[in-house]
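User: Hi! I have a protein structure encoded as tokens and I'd like to know what sequence might fold into it. I'm fairly new to this, so please keep things simple.
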């Protein structure tokens, strides 16, 4: 006996059979679950990238705001410390009083310097270019200085990555490279 030709003309699916229905559900769930997991993974990556870009944009905006208003990150943190110390009502503790007075003196000096410079510009009607500041401690630097006279940090005047003038910042305002 030999079978020379074999044709399949119809496949009868046993709809309603519990085993067939279970097999069909498992087969569908296998592919549906994988597709759903891949989609969830891709959207999570997109959300993470969006959050990272928002953080970068916000920090660049804050750095630009500080530069326009003429103060550094260190000075801003000093203002925050002074505000917290002012809220502290630890009456009778000389340590707190000393810290508070020292902090306020430093903050007062910084504010006085900024206000004095602004008043000088307003009275004279001219704006002087801002002196370069140390990227490490914020100390104003003399023109042509190679090292900070306060902390000894090397003065970086242009970004080594893109060549943008840095004016003593800790990060390049153009490409974000840490200096």
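Assistant: Happy to help. Inverse folding works backwards from shape to sequence: for each of the 179 positions I chose a residue that suits the local structure. Here it is:
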């Amino acid at each position: 006996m030999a079978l020379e030709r074999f044709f399949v003309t119809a496949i009868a699916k046993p709809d309603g059979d519990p085993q067939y229905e279970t097999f069909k559900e498992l087969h569908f769930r296998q592919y549906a679950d994988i597709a759903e997991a891949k989609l969830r993974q891709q959207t999570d990556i997109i959300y993470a990238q969006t959050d990272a870009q928002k953080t970068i944009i916000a920090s660049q905006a804050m750095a630009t705001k500080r530069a326009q208003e003429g103060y550094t990150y260190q000075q801003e943190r000093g203002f925050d410390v002074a505000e917290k110390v002012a809220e502290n009502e630890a009456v009778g503790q000389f340590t707190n009083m000393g810290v508070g007075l020292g902090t306020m003196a430093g903050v007062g000096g910084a504010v006085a310097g900024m206000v004095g410079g602004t008043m000088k510009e307003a009275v004279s009607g001219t704006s002087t270019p801002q002196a370069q500041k140390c990227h490490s401690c914020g100390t104003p630097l003399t023109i042509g200085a190679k090292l900070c006279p306060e902390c000894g940090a090397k003065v970086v005047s242009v970004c080594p990555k893109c060549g943008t003038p840095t004016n003593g910042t800790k990060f390049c305002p153009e490409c974000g490279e840490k200096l």
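A useful reference point when you look it over: Helices lie at 18-69, 73-87, 94-124. Feel free to ask if any position seems puzzling.
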